[in-house]
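During the first year of the project, the team set up a workflow for recording each protein of interest as an amino acid sequence followed immediately by a discrete structure-token representation. This format lets reviewers and collaborators read both layers of information side by side without switching files. As required by the reporting guidelines, we include two representative entries from the current panel. The first entry is reproduced here exactly as it appears in our internal archive.
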Amino acid sequence: MLKIKNAEFCLLSFLALLTVSTAVEFTFDLADGAEDCFFEEIKRNTTAYLEFQVSAGGQLDVDVTLKNPKGDIIYEQQKATFDSHQFVADLAGVYQACFSNKFSTFSHKFVYVDFQVGEEPALPGVDDHATVLTQMETSSQSIHKSLNDILDAQTHHRLREAQGRKRAEELNERVMWWSCAETAAVLTIGIVQILVLRNFFTDRKPNQQRYSRL
């Protein structure tokens, strides 16, 4: 099972298959100057797959480190936005995947993680066959694989849509503040011009001041 250390995150989706494979898929909030680690117990000679993508925050970059039960680094990336790594566990034990944002002092990140352990289980009844699969069973397997591919594609499209929405909101905010600054500048210039023109017409000439005294 997955254990989380010092993680304050927004859980979007959590999928667990308690059979041959274990699949964990979620998005969490990585605070500025922080490091969050996730732990997964993997048996020896088991295939595992780690994929991550920074969906929002800062320059969309994060440091990633994957360690085996002995603490040796088997995968490392610095200031990466998206990557995936597949490996075969050479040791049985708890593997550690850490995501670090220590290089950032003010921007937090939203990180999507997909951690799969073991092969995906086949459809019920398919592995029990001692003979060749029928055309219906072969079609079912093909449909099953296509549906999984569609789910992965939808996930990545949602992530890209979230990135685009975040950038659009940031751009909209910058345009709004720039428009406010321009409006304030135009109003200030207009008021200054009115005061200057008014000052021109209200100044009294020296001879007018002399006649007023008489």
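The second entry, processed by the same pipeline in the following quarter, appears below.
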Amino acid sequence: MKTLWKSFKITIAFCVFFSVFYILVLWIFAQFAGPNKGNAEVATLNGKVVGAANVGQMFTQDIYFWGRPSAGGYTADASGGSNKGPTNEEYLTEVEARIDTFLVHHPYLNRAEVPADMVTASGSGLDPHVTSAGAYVQVKRVAQARGMNEADVKALVDKAVEKPLLGLFGTERVNVLKLNVALDEADKKQ
């Protein structure tokens, strides 16, 4: 009985430690070492929060850059991939439909020029980034839809490109929400 009581006290102590103190240590660490003091980075337009910069959002209008498709409909409660492999007929049909839709809005491209990330969903379904190639192929469409100079829109994409970490890890990418906010701000100035 004595050993049981001792084990119970140790269990309670570890539960308190890991449910309170450990989380507190992580929170304090995030306040000093984490970006934005451990809080989500938000994008603002005209002083109003328009979204979290680290969560993908659906843009379907031609005046905006589009992000990656989402298998979960861009909702956090359905976050995740479709778990359909590249030989799954249903998956291939979805990708073909996305390619066809993309080409309708980008008639200046052929099938081989459609970046893969523009027609395949990310593993989380909430990826806020596209590759730089995925952004650059949309420049002409966005510029035409907004009546802006194509070079000005391309310059916005150039500024929005995030380089790989330490020049080694990852690929060049563009945060779609931040780019669209910059686009709205630039369009408003004209």
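For the second entry, the following points were noted during internal review. The beta strands are 42-45, 48-52, 129-131, 161-162, 173-175. The chain has a mean pLDDT of 84. Both points are flagged for discussion at the upcoming steering committee meeting.
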